[in-house]
Amino acid sequence: GVQETEGQLRLLSVGLEIYSRDSRYTFQRSEDNYWQLTVAGVQETDQGLYECQVTSHPPLAYSRYLHVTVPELKILDERGLRILSKFYNAGSTLELKCLISRVPRPQHFILWVHGNRILNFDTTRGGISVKSDIFDNGVKSSLFIANASPLDSGNYTCSLAGVGETTVAVHVIIGETPAAMQHGTGALLSSSICTSLFTILFSLWEMR
Are residues 158 and 76 part of one domain? Predict the structure, then answer.
């Protein structure tokens, strides 16, 4: 068997003798002389042309091109924007959407995990609901947590078995919105700068 990637040929096997150092490749031969190549844990670098050559007269060769699709995982907020972190006010409803695309015919639903709790099956907190939909080339899941509290802060991970996972950091705050927090920090910084400037000017005036 021969693999061609980026214009370069690579010998994988001759008969049942494997020449590739990649242990993910295995070869089988059935009683009716049917040869099978198996690639475990397919990676993007496995994409390319594979050729089976038969040492007959004249020589025969059968080629197949392997297309590898890389799944895309992302978490969105209630506005459909991709996020890595999100702030919520205490008492509001936490809403996260997980979209996993470029997965042909997915066989599983998305799992949501917070800490060591699988939220899809969590009945201890209450107010948690998960809605999932499978479509042709992916799966989407929406997580809702009513009456959020600071205890709901932390990392939320959505995962699909055999595909991967992605995580978002959630912060539930009391009293101030993120914009107000940033404004307060800016005001404090400006006040500190003004105080320092006044001290310097006063010291210079005394030195006169």
Answer: yes
What's the structural domain count of the chain?
2
Report the DSSP pairing between strands 117-118 and 72-76.
unpaired
Neighbour-count burial of 172, counting CB atoms closer than 10 A to its CB (0-12 exposed, 13-18 middle, 19+ buried): buried
Q: What is the CATH number of the domain that holds 62?
A: 2.60.40.10
Model confidence band, residue 127 (pLDDT cutoffs 50, 70, 90): very high
Structure tokens at 142: 């929406």
91 shares its domain with 166: yes
Model confidence over 143-167: pLDDT tens digits?
Answer: 999 999 999 999 999 999 888 899 9
Among 88-92, 109-113, 197-201, which stretch is predicted with the lowest mean pLDDT? 197-201
Are residues 101 and 129 both part of a single domain? yes
| Whole-number pLDDT of residue 114 | 96
Same domain, 160 and 83: yes
Q: Is the pLDDT of residue 59 over 90?
A: no
Among the listed residues 39, 35, 36, 33, the one whose alpha carbon sits nearest the alpha carbon of residue 20: 39
Same domain, residue pair 84 and 153: yes
- Cα-to-chain-centroid distance, residue 99: 9
What's the rounded Cα separation, in Å, for the pair 29 and 152?
Answer: 55
- Which structural domain range is residue 107 located in? 72-173
